[in-house]
Amino acid sequence: MLADIDMEVAATRGLTGRDALDARVMQAMRKVPRDKFVPRDLQRFAFDNGPLPIGHQQTISQPFIVALMTDLLEPEENKTVLEIGTGSGYQAAVLAQLFRKVYTVEFIRALSEQAAKRFRELRYDNIECRTGNGYLGWPEHAPYDGIIVTAAATHIPEALVQQLKPGGRLVLPVGLPFAHQELLLEKDLQGDTQVTDILGVAFVPMIAEEEAVGR
Q1: Cα distance between residue 19 and residue 38, in whole Å
Q2: Which of 134, 75, 67, 74 is nearest to 102 (CA)?
Q3: Could you give the domains of the chain?
Q4: DSSP letter string over the chain?
Q5: pLDDT of 189 higher than 90
Q6: Taking the model in full, what pTM does it have?
Q7: Rounded to 10 degrees, what is the CA torsion of 23, 28, 29, 33?
Q8: Is a pLDDT exceeding 50 seen at residue 211?
Q9: How far apart are CA 75 and CA 96, in angstroms?
Q10: At a CB cut-off of 8 Å and minimum separation 6, what does 56 contact?
Q11: Pairwise CA distance, residues 104 & 129, whole Å
């Protein structure tokens, strides 16, 4: 899996501007057991460099994308991060290796509860999760040093921008469902934001309140 990530980094460096990912990020990818975050019948594919279904019409992201988005946050061990879209919990587990505290929000209650159970079993004690509307973030613990969104939003949510610390980074895919999406990096430059296109991506859509009926 790590070799595949390195190959993807080399293939996309003209777009991402990265010749290599931070060694700490790669170590976190090595340390987290991805097979513990996928359905049992798909565990034999857990270390392939591709997304996998996790139920509820959601997926666990491709390892390269997990690593790239983590690297774009420029993690530091004394900082806090907010994740929108817990899913199976894999991205949060990677972040937990690199940040002091990880807060993660998932709209689908069943996924949120399953992820919380995994975190307890695997002893990721610095992750706190909740069920909620990701477009609203988690204001009680704001501001955050970094925010990462692991589903495609139709726009950059203003609530997330407001919950970012001065100098912080927001990494998220933006675009219409099942259409062209761009992975964006928004940097807060002490009150003035700068948005950079990183890479074309394909994420499941971020669920809005009205779309979640019956989930």
Answers
A1: 29
A2: 75
A3: 2-211 (3.40.50.150)
A4: -HHHHHHHHHHHHHHH--SS--HHHHHHHHHS-GGGGS-GGGGGGTTSSS-EEEETTEEEPPHHHHHHHHHHT---TT-EEEEE--TTSHHHHHHHTTSSEEEEEESSHHHHHHHHHHHHHHT-TTEEEEES-GGG--GGG--EEEEEE-SBBSS--HHHHHTEEEEEEEEEEEE-TTS-EEEEEEEEETTEEEEEEEEEE--PBPPPGGG-TT-
A5: no
A6: 0.91
A7: 160
A8: no
A9: 10
A10: 108, 110, 111, 215
A11: 5
Q: Are 42 and 63 in contact (CB under 8 A)?
A: no
Each residue's pLDDT tens digit, 69-85? 999 999 999 999 999 99
Lookup: tokens for 140:
């009680």
Q: Is the dihedral of CA 52, 55, 56, 60 positive or negative?
A: negative
Residue 50: both structure tokens together: 């591709």
Encoding tokens for residue 142? 């704001």
Give percent of the chain with pLDDT exceeding 70. 92
**Known catalytic residues?**
61
Tokens (6 digits) for 162: 């407001």
CA–CA distance from 116 to each of 14, 82, 157 (Å)? 38, 15, 25
